Amino acid sequence: MQKRSGRLLAVGLCSLLLCLSLVLFADASIVRFTQKHIDKGTRFLQETFSPITQALAFSTTTKLTEEKLDDIASQYVSKVVKQEIQALRDQFQTSFPKSTDLLPARIIGYIGFVPGISEPKDIVLDRGSKDGVVLESAVVYKNYLIGKVQKVTESRSLVALIGGESFSFTGKMSESETFGIVISKQDELVLDKVLASESLQPSDIVVTGGSQNLLGKGLPPNLLVGKVVDVDKKSSALFQSGKLKRFVDPKTLTRVFIVMP
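^ thats the sequence. predicted structure below, dont judge the formating
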């Protein structure tokens, strides 16, 4: 009887262990199955929505970039407009040359200008023959001489700047009738061929001597050119010369004015 009870107990324990094993195995399979399909679902969602997320991020970044560029452009345009309005105001407040004789023009190009290496020799303006521009016309800013029209097309003008090799003219002292020739020497602006017997001193102001013809072409007299900063005078020489510093740097300008005949 005892042997029979022992066998029954052993069988019961084995059955219990078998049942527990089946349950645990089944749970592990369910977990693996569930995890497998969760991973697949996650990958599906990532593959499906990733392009949309990227597109939204790109759209947001692009919008912010466009807004920033628009802001920069607006600030630049505002600055340019303010400069041009100020230039017009300054010019119309200048009594000479008369504003009624002037044609406003925008500088659209600098010829021969390499930053840190060379200064511009000529500038290009957005006015041409259709606007009435003719050769030899003076180009000014306020009452300062900037240059002279050298070539003209229908819609553009090439202006030789003072100090350029292709531009020389008669100049004189603002306080006397001491004349000379304003030329470029080794990239420097010089009042040359001044008689040695004439007074020429540092800080003297040089203006245009005037070269207009009957048709009004040429340079009007008394436009400001520059200030004498150094004098080259030799006792045995017939002439003396003075190095000039021009009053206006054309690179700082956006708009100038053509003196119309």
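The first strand starts at residue 102 and ends at 111.
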